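REQUEST ID: PR-0412
SUBMITTED BY: lab tech R.K.
PRIORITY: routine
TASK: structure prediction, single protein chain
INPUT:
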Amino acid sequence: MTTFMNDVTRLVTGGAVDRLAEITAAPRRPVPVGADRYVALRALAEQLAAEANGALRPTGIRVELEDERRDGQLGFGLSCGGATVSFVTELAGGVAVVHLDGLGHDGGELELNEPGELEAVILELIRRALGRDEELADP
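STATUS: complete
OUTPUT:
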């Protein structure tokens, strides 16, 4: 199992996983750069959702990934139980900007500090789906 799958298993069995995603202001990037970052993040989301679902199988809970299609935007959403988060890259005027919506963020021009932070986002979705309301501590 991967380290991420071990973290999911730890959550399922009642353990704590104190990892918070670093959310930062999203800079405006050239469209090719923004589109490339989106594709990398979307591919990673698919991989991590599959890994999480493998570890979640005994619970009946699933991480769902759904593509969101809109004119001039690339987007996908992740959900687990009632918790959701959306990642949308807006492509307009020769620039790309990312919007993050969910988990306490309002759709502003925000992004993950790095794609690897997606693990922490998915762990937070799972934590909420499991009804684990305790606050996470900053690592």
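NOTES: The radius of gyration is 15 Å.
REVIEWED BY: pending
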